[in-house]
């Protein structure tokens, strides 16, 4: 297989550009497996957005890279450009380490594949795009890619960082520190920890800012972040509790995260192969562990993007190391795509795990944003024992009251708590049938009597911290929410912030 593909690629490379299969308006386009430079990356995404304009939209994050390359993102969904009630949002981010380039090509290839499969009427892709809003950022660090590529792509570190020599996967606010300090003080708070951030010890890079704003302004439910240099799916936490260099760091969603990592690893022909040799002779091989690892058990990382997603937003993120070779030859890319395609697809379907629903005011029927959705695991273990365990990581409903809570199968008590309302609990059984939407449970919350009187007197609207500057029914499209101002506003007064 590998040799056949290599020959195909050599042939492609040898042909003049005009005879290579060039997309035309009428015929279906081909995707060329090669290392696309930053202009070609933009071109591929533009072509996909044009060819699939009914389900695709190209946009750039709000800041370009240090060297002014836009962070192009392709959105794919049946109604591109808007968040739809109850439709969960997903993202793939690749190439944040500029010299780890395979994920960049895989995500570009995926964009092309989703578009072609949609056009061909593939029922799985049609269903996925109609029930999921997918965002693809093939390169978070185009400047690092440029440096790695200009210098031959063989150096283990050259091009890893951005153009200010900052490793973007150490550049996010260290919310693990806040979370562990909450734990030590027996404070239950374990979500949306940007609210607790009182200062930053450094100015984040533009690429990091852009992604932070994106994370906080989009209701992502699930994501993955593609790297290279090993072959393993790595899940939170990335930072150890004690500060040890290597130590398993359980998160409240450990079971769900392990499942998510296993979905990817088990669909990849080599990641979970127990007989696979290590990437570097003598090194550890994750094959016998099923191709998955807890982040901190491998090596502790502070300021990483994976834990930032989990601790700042409703998103669950896994880090995928998609190959031993950080900069593999172009001739290997098509086989790599075939090896990763099913894993990439099946992982996106996981956006539909668990339970979702709408939280509403029982009197007016209006959606309630910022409701805390708390889950307790009450799964029966055996004849005598029922699990009775709070999962200490709440998610929040977004601006029309919709929420998503990824969960592995089990029995759960789900409680919705919103300011000014009586809390409400539903008991659910999660089974996660494959390729189906999540179980639906809505919450119709009864207003607290005295609170509604208070509201009448003051004319105040209920609602939580983040969105309550918008009157009911006048909330802007979540995508356009000027959250950066909100975020920057909160950060502006802090030490060492030159904003
Ligand atoms: C920044 O980019 C320029 C142009 O690609 C390159 O010459 C320079 O080495 C880069 N600097 C760093 C620190 O990456
Ligand atoms: C709930 O408990 C069951 C039984 O112990 C377990 O299999 C499952 O993973 C738990 N769910 C979560 C989300 O932790
Ligand atoms: C049921 O599970 C509990 C908790 O894991 C264990 O302590 C107990 O021994 C089990 N009982 C039986 C009958 O298997
Ligand atoms: Zn990396």
TrEMBL record:
Keyword Signal annotated: yes
Classification via InterPro entries: CarboxyPept-like_regulatory, CARBOXYPEPT_ZN_1, CARBOXYPEPT_ZN_2, Peptidase_M14, Peptidase_M14_domain
Signal peptide as annotated in the record: 1-19
Location, primary (coarse class): secreted
GO BP term, example: peptide metabolic process
Membrane-spanning residues: none
Protein's UniProt name: Peptidase M14 domain-containing protein
Needed cofactors: Zn(2+)
GO molecular function ontology, one term from the record: zinc ion binding
Keywords associated with the record: Carboxypeptidase, Glycoprotein, Hydrolase, Metal-binding, Metalloprotease, Protease, Secreted, Signal, Zinc
């Amino acid at each position: 297989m590998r040799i056949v593909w290599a020959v195909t690629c050599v042939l492609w490379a040898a042909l003049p550009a005009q005879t290579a299969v060039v997309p035309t308006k009428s015929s279906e386009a081909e995707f060329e497996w090669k290392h696309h430079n930053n202009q070609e990356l933009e071109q591929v995404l533009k072509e996909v957005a044009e060819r699939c304009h009914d389900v695709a939209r190209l946009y750039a994050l709000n800041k370009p890279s240090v060297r002014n390359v836009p962070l192009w993102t392709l959105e794919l969904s049946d109604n591109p450009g808007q968040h739809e009630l109850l439709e969960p949002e997903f993202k793939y981010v690749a190439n944040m380490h500029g010299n780890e380039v395979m994920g960049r090509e895989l995500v570009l290839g995926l964009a092309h594949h989703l578009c072609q499969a949609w056009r061909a009427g593939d029922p799985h892709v049609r269903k996925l795009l109609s029930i999921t809003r997918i965002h693809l950022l093939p390169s978070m660090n185009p400047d690092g890619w440029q440096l790695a590529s200009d210098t031959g792509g063989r150096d283990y570190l050259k091009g890893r960082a951005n153009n200010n020599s900052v490793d973007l996967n150490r550049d996010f606010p260290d919310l693990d520190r806040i979370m562990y300090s909450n734990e030590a003080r027996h404070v239950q708070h374990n979500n949306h920890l940007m609210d607790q951030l009182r200062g930053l010890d450094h100015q984040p890079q533009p690429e990091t800012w852009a992604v932070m704003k994106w994370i906080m302004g989009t209701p992502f439910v699930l994501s993955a972040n593609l790297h290279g240099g090993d072959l393993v799916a790595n899940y939170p936490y990335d930072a150890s509790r004690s500060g040890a260099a290597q130590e398993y760091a359980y998160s409240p969603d450990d079971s769900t995260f392990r499942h998510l990592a296993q979905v990817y690893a088990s669909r990849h022909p080599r990641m979970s192969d127990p007989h696979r040799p290590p990437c570097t002779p003598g090194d550890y091989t994750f094959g016998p562990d099923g191709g998955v690892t807890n982040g901190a058990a491998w090596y502790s990382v502070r300021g990483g993007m994976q834990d930032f997603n989990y601790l700042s937003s409703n998103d669950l993120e896994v880090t995928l190391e998609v190959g031993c070779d950080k900069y593999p030859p172009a001739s290997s890319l098509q086989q790599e795509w075939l090896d990763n395609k099913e894993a990439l697809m099946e992982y996106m379907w996981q956006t539909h795990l668990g339970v979702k629903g709408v939280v509403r005011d029982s009197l007016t029927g209006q959606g309630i944003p910022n409701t805390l959705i708390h889950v307790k695991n009450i799964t029966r273990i055996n004849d005598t024992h029922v699990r009775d365990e709070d999962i200490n990581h709440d998610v929040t409903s977004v601006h029309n009251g919709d929420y998503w809570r990824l969960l592995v199968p089990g029995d759960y008590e789900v409680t919705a708590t919103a300011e000014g309302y009586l809390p409400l609990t539903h008991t659910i059984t999660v089974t996660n049938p494959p390729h189906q939407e999540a179980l639906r449970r809505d919450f119709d919350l009864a207003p607290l009597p005295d609170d509604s009187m208070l509201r009448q007197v003051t004319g105040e609207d209920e609602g939580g911290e983040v969105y309550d500057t918008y009157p009911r029914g006048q909330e802007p499209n979540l995508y356009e929410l000027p959250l950066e101002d909100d975020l920057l506003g909160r950060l502006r007064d802090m030490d060492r912030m030159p904003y």
